[in-house]
Amino acid sequence: MAxxxxxxxxxxxKDVNKVFSTAVENAExxxxxxxxxxxxxxxxxxxxxxxxxxxxxxEEVIRQSTRSAVQTLFNSLWQLxxxxxEGTYVVTLPEIKMWLPREKPIPKKRAVTKxxxxxxxxxxxxxxxxRMVWDEAAKEYKPRxxxxxxxxxxxxxxIEVPANADPMEDQxxxxxxxxxxxxxxxxxxxxxxxxxxxxRKVPGVGLTPTxxxxxxxxxxxxxxxxxxxxxxxxxxxxxxxxxxxxxxGKKRKFEPSIGDLxxxxxxxxxxxxxxxxxxxxxxxxxxxxxxLRESEEQRSRERPSRKTPKKQKGKGxxxxxxxxxxxxxxxxxxx
Length: 335
Fold this sequence. Notes:
Elements: H1 2-18, E1 30-33, E2 38-41, H2 55-77, E3 82-85, E4 88-91, H3 114-122, E5 132-135, E6 140-143, H4 171-197, H5 215-226, H6 261-277, H7 284-302, H8 316-323, H9 327-334
Antiparallel strand pairs: 1-2, 3-4, 5-6
């Protein structure tokens, strides 16, 4: 029994020695940037200056320095405000201290849509719904929306006619038309949101259908119907006691070909100012460096070469040997 206790004590003592303390010595020499999760050690690791330098000893020193930097970073993170979200601890990081260059600009935040503005003003919160729901007809779970969705009313072969509806009206065609109108309205709202985020205007698409149109809506619809003919409503007959519509739209104004010279001069000067602003600016530094480089290259081409010309072989020495030589040979050739 005593031997077993001794073995257990040795194992426990060995495990205790492996546990490091959260306190770090010389923590003030470590720079911490919580925004980037960056820990930088400013102390110099002069390992080669020690007399007992070995590869194993150097790796151990680097490992200890890295461990101290990481422990200091975690100690600083736990001092920041912490909140628990869905069973997970979340730390709100502060602003970064070391600004790093980035290739592209920071993306801008998306502009809120009209529905988001309305929901924020009314305090409406988005409730997360599960995608799969139980379908009573098929007795299985199906997607809430999309292809093969649960409780799909469009697959019904029979539709009950409402009490206040026309019994001869086609309810299938009515439902299909209503769906097309909803899809078109959603698409128009999507385009409007994109235009609002990019600060542009959406072109007019006519009048959207409404359940209870107002007086102004009916007046606009009447004007649109009147101008939908080939003559743009020029020969369309007016209704009895019909008043002129106030929704006539904007008319284009054409300047006369011969008019005020002062206005014409101002208009032309304004056009010249706009075109002058579009002229690209000249980079003086770049142009100067380019001119200096070209002048230096031209000067180097015009400078005479310092290399000595090579001796021509086969003319001077060989010719002397052929024409010169011994005196006896010259005599023989003369004879």
